[in-house]
Amino acid sequence: MPSCWVYPMPEIVLEQNSGGYTVPVEQFCFNPNAYIQPYSFKPAAVISSTGALRDQHYVEVMVNPVEFCPGTQHLSIINKIIVTLNFITPKGELQQELGLFSDIAAEVFINFDKNAKRYIFPKNPPQGIVKFINLTDTSQACKILADYLILTDSSFFKPNDPNSQLLRLANHRAKYNGYDVTIVNVEQILELNFDYDGNPDPFGDPDEFIKEQKIRTFIRRVYEGKNANHMTDKHLAFVLLVGDNYEGNTGIRSL
What residues make up the domain containing 113? Predict the structure, then answer.
């Protein structure tokens, strides 16, 4: 289809309206140089990413039924696309046990049947256990008993304070949901020799990168330990990060 014109996607910018309020509005940023460049058409469907939701691995396929060549003003529209995926030496079941996350998987994955792996929330669950744990060795991570894990700044890690707001929150989850809740001082995680993967951003702070990766490694080891007794797949389900990013503020803030 020749002699077509496709405008660029608008940017969202903030402008002040007649009432003096700042509101988001769409703004078209037209780049004339981009519309004289040659364009090579791409495959109609490509694998854009792979990943996992808990133990369920997935493949994300991006479909491009419409393509536009700005240089010739030619618009191509594909009416029918058939996509075939071939998995080489796949391992495990097609549908993994995801427990209470099966409904999420059913919404985002095309061929996931939530009825086959549906999680039934228990009525009046028995109260879970709340524990503060002091870490002294990296091997402790895979043995931690937790459906719900709280990583907190040291200022909120108060095992002997019965009036702790963090303890109140943990007790609520243990009573209302029946979860086993474990509270860990994040400073102890950072002091231990947890390994980390990848390379830091060359423009970022390498020390902050290492801290982030140590926390990720700790959470992964707790997850892989499979000591969440109230989850059908036995994996850690929830992580809450607690800290204080405001000077002079002593309240609990979920990050």
Answer: 93-120
CA pair distance 90, 54, nearest whole angstrom? 17
In whole angstroms, give the CA distance from residue 212 to residue 172.
Answer: 28
* Residue 157 DSSP SS3: coil
**What's residue 255's pLDDT?**
36
Q: Tell me: the pLDDT tens digits for 157-171?
A: 999 999 999 999 999
Q: Do 7 and 73 contact (CB within 8 A), yes or no?
A: no
75 and 105 together in one domain = no
Q: Which residue's structure tokens are 């060359």?
A: 202
In this structure, the answer to whether residues 161 and 181 fall within a common structural domain is yes
Burial state string for 128-162 with b = 16 or more CB within 10 A and e = fewer than 16: bebbbbebeebebbeebbbbbbbbbbeebbbeeee
Whether the predicted pLDDT of 65 surpasses 60 = yes
Tell how strand 181-185 and strand 148-152 pair up: parallel
Please state, in angstroms and rounded to a whole number, the distance separating the CA atoms of residues 210 and 203: 14
In terms of Cβ atoms closer than 10 Å to its own Cβ (0-12, 13-18, 19+), residue 235 is buried
Q: Looking at 9-13, 155-159, 199-203, which range is the least confident one?
A: 199-203
